[in-house]
Amino acid sequence: MSWWPFRRTGLPAGPPNLTEIRHSFERDAHDEEHFPSTIDPRIYHVKLILEHLGPLHSALDVGSGKGRFARVLKEHHPAANIVCFDLALEMLRRVDPNLATCAGSMTALPFASHSFDGVYATESLEHAVDIETAVAEMCRVLKPGGRLVIIDKNAEHWGKLKTPAWERWFHRAELENLLRRHCQTVESRPISYWEDVPPDGLFLAWLATK
Ligand SMILES: C[S@@+](CC[C@H](N)C(=O)[O-])C[C@H]1O[C@@H](n2cnc3c(N)ncnc32)[C@H](O)[C@@H]1O
Questions:
Q1: Which of 49, 52, 155, 189 is the most exposed place for a label (fewest CB within 10 A)?
Q2: Spatial contact of 129 and 16, defined as CB atoms under 8 Å apart
Q3: CA of 2 to the centre of ligand 1 (A)
Q4: pLDDT confidence of residue 198
Q5: How far is CA 182 from the centre of its chain?
Q6: In a domain, 5, yes or no
Q7: Is the pLDDT of residue 160 over 70?
């Protein structure tokens, strides 16, 4: 289904262009305030990923940016092979050197099927444009029994923040249904940054096991 003709902004209606999206994030990489390279490990988004992925030997951070989540994961699993994957080379240049990096689009992951114990994507699927293919790819590279976490924004709160022309937010059922095509168990729930603060509904987490 096409969604882009209905988007706002001064850009002409038309299919979003991957090169345009990549250039935008190459520029954003210089903005450490809004695209930070570290994260407070007490933030619930981090804790939830650690908890759901559990023990692992390998993990893929899809749309990793500067790998702020992967840094924490590596501290918890020092022997694990953790790969930061992103469209923007300038983001990957800022990833911790103890982590592996790989550039490309999440709609065509350059990894063999069944490669990773854990896969996660935080605030990146919303930029993938071809959401169905990106979800299928994340699930393809996951081992049977492997665990997946997607954290993204709730379509019910669309308009609350300024967004680029290609960005999409999701309804819980929308991603649940896509994930159920590939995974044995799928659930979703609203989450907040801090465990003891009730969620305001802006962020949703989808948790799946293949
Ligand atoms: C808002 S940032 C989030 C970065 C990181 N996950 C975090 O939470 O710090 C979105 C990231 O997704 C990446 N991205 C956008 N489209 C992508 C695609 N098709 N494939 C891979 N990465 C993509 C961008 O380059 C950017 O680094």
A1: 189
A2: yes
A3: 21
A4: 87
A5: 17
A6: no
A7: yes
Kindly state whether residue 31 falls inside one of the protein's structural domains.
yes
| 139 CB within 6 A, ligand 1 | no
- pLDDT recorded at residue 15: 59
The answer to whether residue 9 is domain-embedded is no
Q: Could you tell me the CATH number of the domain that includes residue 145?
A: 3.40.50.150
CA 149, chain centre distance (Å): 8
Helix (H, G, I), strand (E, B) or coil at 81: strand
**Rounded Cα–Cα distance for residues 23 and 21 (Å):** 6
Nearest CA to ligand 1 atom 1: 123
Instruction: Please give the residue range of the domain that contains residue 167.
Output: 15-209
Residue 66 placed within a domain: yes
Pocket lining: 128 vs ligand 1, CB cutoff 6 Å: yes
Q: Token digits for 16?
A: 């979003």
Is the CB of residue 123 below 6 angstroms from any atom belonging to ligand 1?
Answer: yes
46 contact partners, CB below 8 Å, separation of at least 6: 39, 40, 69, 72
AA letter at 200 = D
pTM of the model: 0.93
Asked if residue 45 has its Cβ within 6 Å of ligand 1, the reply is no
Domain count, the chain: 1
Asked if residues 81 and 58 have their Cβ atoms less than 8 Å apart, the reply is: yes
